[in-house]
Amino acid sequence: MKYNTDMNLPEAYCKQMQELLGEEYTAYLAALEQPPMAGLRVNTGKVSVEEFLKISPFSLRPVPWCSEGFYYDRQEKPGTHAYYAAGLYYLQEPSAMIPGSLLPVQEGDRVFDACAAPGGKSTQTACRMKNGLLVCNDLSASRQAASLRNLERAGVDFAYVTCEDALDAAGKYRGCFDGILLDAPCSGEGMFRKDPSLIRSWHEGINEEYAALQKELINACADMLRDGGYMVYSTCTFSVKEDEEVVLDLLARHPECTLIRTAAYPGFRPGVLPGTEACIRLYPHCVEGEGHFAAVIRKGSGERAERAVRQYVHQLPDFFRMVKKDFSHREIIRKGDKLYALPEEPLPGKQVRALRTGLYLGTMKKNGFEPSQALAMTLDRESFGQCVCFDAEDERVMRYLRGETVFADEEKSGWVLVCADRWPLGFAKASGKALKNRIDPGWRRQ
Fold first, then answer.
1. Pairwise CA distance, residues 81 & 55, whole Å
2. Which of 30, 138, 278, 380 is most buried, taking the most CB atoms under 10 A from its CB?
3. What are phi and psi of 115, to 5 degrees?
4. Has residue 4 got a pLDDT over 80?
5. Which residues are registered as beta bridge partners of 89?
6. At the topology level of CATH, where does 98-366 sit?
């Protein structure tokens, strides 16, 4: 195989991009020599953008297409800060913020993220939903472990984290969802700059291989949409076969579906085939981000149906007297010695392979109830009866995150929520000024 000398790009790929970009091809190659952009997205489920900007220790610039997205300087390392541990933001490549920004959602919707791992788009969509039912799905159970962690850190408490084949899911969830995100598996051409290993796996015919799967997935997802529901189809590739041709295949097989035109930003390009002008293309020489493709699709014209609000009467452990969180609309179930609060919207369909069903509350033990890390991350100093709030820069914060016993300024007794400023890091058991660490071992910093 012959390669381009600039980035060892396959000759066949270079020819494909020359045909696609024409005179802009040289600018595209030059962009590949530049470092990739780094971005973070504020978790508006915990903090407003305005409030975060007041407390942020980082130098930030807005991402034009995502109101809660910002570019940051990699040298600042926001992944090591206490605010990251508290779930105030998610580290995400700027172009990858587009699909979650495009999906129209309302509070109480049912949303299916078909190929979700590692969960970034799910956390973004959850911020906009606020409640309802979010099914964060991916075929890979190992990759879904990251989705589960990211959803818990973000404080999302109305999600199912599942490991289903999206093609099989269509038979269980026909006509169930108000919104679907399909960030489909692809050849990854738009990520060559960020992940050069993808260049080595590219070969002639790879676009056709992925396109066959993508066509199956997008049509299966259309079957899961309710009348009037929306789907965002996205990839991180430039291939017309994986992008516009997949969308056109859906429109041919589902005439009730239509493309929806969305807001355009400087540098955005339309689809390159007739009938796909409403699609969005991003190139690294046109925007500050990696390559991406996205299309918003609506099925039919129905209106969102009103859903009944359920009421439950619970006998929760005494611990929950300290929790200022309303569970009256949530079914509480027990699996073995573990308690879970299901989302307000029930999961339709048959039994699914799930890593997590709703919010894991904690474990029933002989000597009482042990609250979970997941529950801690849904709280703040106003929603728990006893808190210890350290300044985010206090050295005790990092010691707590390492799993050490730390000492409060005042004496406490029993369960306390340990916070950086007012945002949760986890629980501790207090005895006097000593706070015996109860942060989940898997969440500890090295």
1. 12
2. 138
3. -130, 70
4. no
5. 42
6. Rossmann fold (3.40.50)
| Marked catalytic residue, from 186, 221, 236, 389 | 236
Delimiting residues of CATH 2.30.130.60 domain(s) in the chain = 379-446
Give the C-alpha separation, 111 to 103, whole Å. Answer: 10
By CB atoms closer than 10 A (0-12, 13-18, 19+), residue 114 is buried
Q: Which regions of the chain carry the CATH code 3.40.50.150?
A: 98-366
**SS3 assignment, position 177:** strand
Give the whole-angstrom CA distance, residue 93 versus residue 282: 13
Contact 108, 344 (CB under 8 A): yes
Q: What does the pLDDT look like over 332-348, one tens digit per residue?
A: 999 999 999 999 988 87
The CATH number of the domain covering residues in 379-446: 2.30.130.60
For the chain, the helix, strand and coil percentages under 3-state DSSP, each to the nearest 5: 30, 30, 40
Positions of E strands within 283-394:
292-299, 332-335, 338-341, 354-357, 359-365, 368-371, 387-390
| Residue 398 CB coordination number (10 Å) | 18
Using CB atoms within 10 Å of the CB of residue 216, give its burial: 0 to 12 exposed, 13 to 18 middle, 19+ buried. Answer: middle
Mean pLDDT value across the chain: 94
CA 383/CA 44 separation, integer angstroms: 17
Length of the chain: 446
Question: Cα(14)–Cα(28) distance, rounded to whole angstroms?
Answer: 11
Residues contacting 60, CB < 8 A, separation 6+: 40, 53, 70, 71, 72
* Tens digits of residue pLDDT in 271-319: 999 999 999 999 999 999 999 999 999 999 887 777 777 889 888 999 9
Beta bridge partners of 225: 177
Amino acid sitting at position 341: A
Structure token pair of residue 157: 């408490």
d(CA 280, CA 259): 11
Q: Is 186 marked active-site?
A: no
Q: For the full predicted model, state whether its pTM sits above 0.85.
A: yes
Q: What are the structure tokens assigned to 21, written together?
A: 């970009």
Q: Which amino acid is at 269?
A: R
Q: Which residue in the block uniquely carries the two structure tokens 């900007």?
A: 53
